[in-house]
Description:
Structural class: alpha/beta
Radius of gyration: 23 Å
Amino acid sequence: MAEIYVIVGTGAAGMAAAERIRLYKKDVTIIMMSIDEHSHSRCMLHKFLGGERTEEELSFVEPDFFQKHEIYWGKGQKALGLDTKNRQIRMENGYQPYDKLLIATGSVFGIPPINHFRTASNVYGFRDLIDAQKIDAAVKAKNAKHVFIVGSGLVGLDVATGLMERGVKVTIAEMAPRVMPLQTDDTAAKAYQERFEAHGARFLLGIGASDSIVNDQNEITGVVLSTGETVACDFVICAAGVRPNIMWLEDSGLAMERGITVDEYMQTSAPDVYAAGDVTGLSGVWPNAMDMGRIAASNMCGVPTKYTDRYCMKNTSNFFGLQMLTIGDINRQVEGADIYVKESKNCYKKAVVKDGFLQAILIQGDISHTGHWQYLIKNGINISELLKTKDVFDITYGDFYGLDDMSEYQYA
C-alpha cells in the first residue's frame, strides 16, 4: 500500500511542498486538506473584495495543478486536532491517517479585547478567502455604507482598498502616529495617507477604540474612541496583528511557543511531522513560506536539506499606483548610524548605514532594479569602499558582479 503524505493547508508553503513531494515521490498518495474551497494568493484578496477578480482568479497555481500532480484535495475541511501516537488528524468529517505530515495552516487574525468585539456577529478579519467571502456577503446583505477598520498596516490598507473600490466609506483607526508604522517613516507614510484620503478614507492616528455599541441583533453599530467620539459603522474589520494558527494543536503534544517549534530541517518534536510557513512563527513573507515548504518536503522524502535563509524583513506595497519597498527595520534607532535621504518628484529613498554596513532601506516610487539591497543587508556586505566614490543609492548589483570570492566584503 502506498505511503500517505498529508498536507494541512493550501497556501504558499503547502503548495510548494506538494509539488516537491511529487517530484521526489512518484508513487506515494498526496492528500491536501484546507478550510477554503479555492486555492488563493492572500496578497490578491483585496482584488476579490473589490470585484476585480473572481475566486477562481485568485489562484497562484495552474488550474490543473492537483490533477497534474495527482493530488487529492479535501476542500472545505477544518482540522480540529492531531493524534501523533496513532498518526491521524481529526477533521470535521472524521479522521485522516498519515505516514508523513506537513502542517501548513498559516496564521489567523487577532481581535483586540474591546467590549463586544469578540462576541458581536459583525466583526471580521481579513486573512483568508473565507474572511473575504464573509465581508463580501456582509457588504451585500447590509448594503454597507461605512466600515470601521482597526489597523493601518498592509492588511488594513488592503481591505480598505477593496471596500473603497465598491464605494464603501472606511474609517481606519491606528494606535501609532502614522499609517503602515512598521514599513514606513513619516515621509513615506504621509504620501500613502494623502492618497487614501483623496479617495475618501478617514484616518484616526494615535487613537484607539475603547468601547462599542451593539443593537438587538448583537451587531456593532458604532465604535467608541478613546477621545469619546463615536463612529457609526455597518461592521468592523480587525486588521491589527496575526498569530500562528496552532489552537487546533493544543492537545497534540507538539512543542510550541509562539508557533510550532521546528528544527533546521523543518521537523517538529513528533516523528514524521513537519511544519512550514506562518504556522512556525518564523516568517510572514511569501517567498520564505514557499522555501520552507520545499525544504520540509525534501526532508519528508528523505533528502536532507537545511533551512538557512531566514531573513524575512522585506515588504513591498502598491497603493493607488505608489509602490514601496522596505528592507530591514527602517525605524530602529541605530546608535552612530548615518542616515541617507534622497527625494525627487517621483521617488523617495532612505538608507541607514552603520560602519559601512547597510542596516535598512526604504524606496518609495520606482522600485525596479532593487533586488540587490536585500542581498547586501542579509549577507552583511561591507560597502565602505563603494561609499567613497558613489552615492549609496547609486550602488547596483553590478558593483559585485563577477566576484567569486566575496570575503573582502563579508562581515567578519
